[in-house]
Structure formats: C-alpha cells, structure tokens
Amino acid sequence: MGMKLIIDTDPGVDDAFAIALAALSEDVRLLGVTTVFGNVPLENTTANALRVLQLCGRPDVPVAAGAARPLVHPQLARAGHVHGADGLSGRSASLPAPQREPEPGGAVRLLVSLLEAADEPVTIAPIGPLTNIALLLAAHPHVKPKIGRIVLMGGGVARGNSTATAEFNIWSDPEAARRVLVDEDVPCVMVPLDLTHRCAVSTAWLNELAQSPIGAALTALTPDYLASYRRSLGWDGIVLHDAVAVAEAINPGILRTEPYPIEVDCTFGPGRGTTLVDRRLPGMRGEGDGAVAPKTVQVAVDTDVAGLGEFVLGRLRRSVPA
Predict the structure, then answer these.
(1) Per-residue model confidence as pLDDT tens for the chain (322 residues)
(2) Domain tally for the chain?
C-alpha cells in the first residue's frame, strides 16, 4: 500500500520538485497537501500546489489552504526574489490548470480528518513555515499518536539564508517553529540548510531531468531560481532544499541524522529565527541556566550526495501514473 504521507508546503520551486517527488513515487500514499504562506502569498502557494499535482496526474490528492500569516508577528519578507513573483519563476500558468478546488474548511481540518482516518502512522513533511503544524498540534493534540514523525525542511546548524544565522522557513514564523521543535513530543527530523546546500544539483542534472515530459515542465520553472543560486553558489546549479527532506520522508535513512536538543530564537534581535542546535556532548549540556530541554530532534547531518541525486532524478523522470 505504501507509506502514508502528507506534505505541508509553500510552493516555491523546490517545493514543486518535492511535491512531484512524492506524487510520482509508487511506494507512497500521498494522502493530502496543505498550503501555507511563505515564499509567496497563500493564494499563489495554493494554486501552485494544485497545478503541480495536476502536472503529475494526481488530481485525486486533496489540497487545503492553511495559514496566510504567522501565528503572532508579521512575516518580515517573502522570497519572490528567489522564486519569482508567482513562486514558480513567473511560469505557474505554464502548468496544467487544476481539475479540483481546494478543500473547504482549510488545512487544519483536512489534516485532522486524514490523521483520524489513518490506520497506521502518517509522516508529515512540512517544507514551508511551520504555522499549520503548530496550529494542528496546539488545537488537536488527540491526533499526535497518528503522526509517525515530522520530517521538516528548515533551520541551520552553522548558517542561515534569510539572516546570517536564520533559515527562511523558521525565520518566517519562529513561534510556530518553537512550538513544533521544542514544545511538542512528536518525533521530528530537521533537514537544515547545511545539508541541503551540499546536495545542490547542476544544470547537467536538470538537463537529464528535462528528458522526460514532467521533468521538462519542472525544469522550465527554474530560471529565476537558477539566477538566484548562481549568485549564492558561485556556479550554475540549484538547491532543492525541500526535495531533500521529502526524500527522507519517503525513504527513511537516506539521510544520516544525529539527535540534538534544539532551541528556536524568538527574540527580536539579530538572532531571531535561528535554530540553536546544541552539539555539546550530553555531559557538557549543563544544569540550571545552561540546561537544555530533554527533548532531542533528529538533525540530518550527512548523506550520499550522488546517491540522493540519483534517487530524486529517477523518481522525477517517471511517467504520469496510468
């Protein structure tokens, strides 16, 4: 039957690749997709998710729109300069028009109904700001036993992108991220920038992907994204952040993880949105003011980069299911 997966997303070019990765994987039961503000406004992220699923021949997957803004404080900036004004390099309309409307009732209602109906643990892959997931866990704690694990793209161990130390998804709603990563007892895997940047793919990889119809449609979404990463990488390639996390969600162990306590900076100084990963040895983690929460998060620290690239490429080149 395949492992059960829900994706929470803010498409976004790398989100589009991640959704397609799950939608085209025959060993995955993609139960639903929920959308959140982030790279671009909620209206765009929802339309983009519907269009990517239509491209992949998966109009059967329900989509529900979620949070349009962070839990508490306004989002400081979007990422249109990276993903294009519509989130897909201005090319969202090049994807097929969706055959279904978003589900009535919104993202949290869909998440609750899918989890309540599940007869085995469900993996949730949040690849945007964590607002919907924080709302779900806060308002519906009875569904937590149905969540096998949360595999999220976000955070950084030694680097940021929105600021020197904060990664975009966490920085967009630090209070939500803290609720999920620090306060809740659901198992979490955090796939940080440090690893996703090491998994960047080249234009040669994209050219190989473009040999298939769906791959060609996905690579056509990348011009603005390529231009942005040409500046940050210093070579022609892109970082498929969210696809790295979804690869781990659907193939547990493709990333190597280590357990660390984490704190999320929710102050208003230059560290806001930073994930503080405590890499001290357990005996050095202190007591009193220096103590850390007993909860640990599995932080992805390594992978077979070439093998991961082949895994993602192979699945994205598949044909639309009959």
Answers:
(1) 689 999 999 998 999 999 999 999 999 999 999 999 998 899 999 999 999 999 999 999 999 999 999 999 987 766 556 666 788 888 898 899 999 999 999 999 999 999 999 999 999 999 999 999 999 999 999 999 999 999 999 999 999 999 999 999 999 999 999 999 999 999 999 999 999 999 999 999 999 999 999 999 999 999 888 988 888 888 899 999 999 999 999 999 999 999 999 999 999 999 999 999 999 887 776 655 555 566 899 999 999 999 999 999 999 998 665 4
(2) 1
Annotated active-site residue 142? The verdict is no
* Residue 247 CB partners (closer than 8 Å, separation 6+): 21, 254, 255, 308, 311, 312
244 located within any domain: yes
Q: Which residues of 97-106 are buried (b: 16+ CB within 10 A; e: fewer)?
A: ebeeebbeeb
CATH number at 141 reads: 3.90.245.10
Catalytic residue among 81, 83, 197, 241: 241
**Quick check: is 322 in a domain?**
no
Q: Which domain holds residue 212?
A: 3-316
This prediction's pTM? 0.95
Are the beta carbons of 20 and 222 closer than 8 angstroms?
no
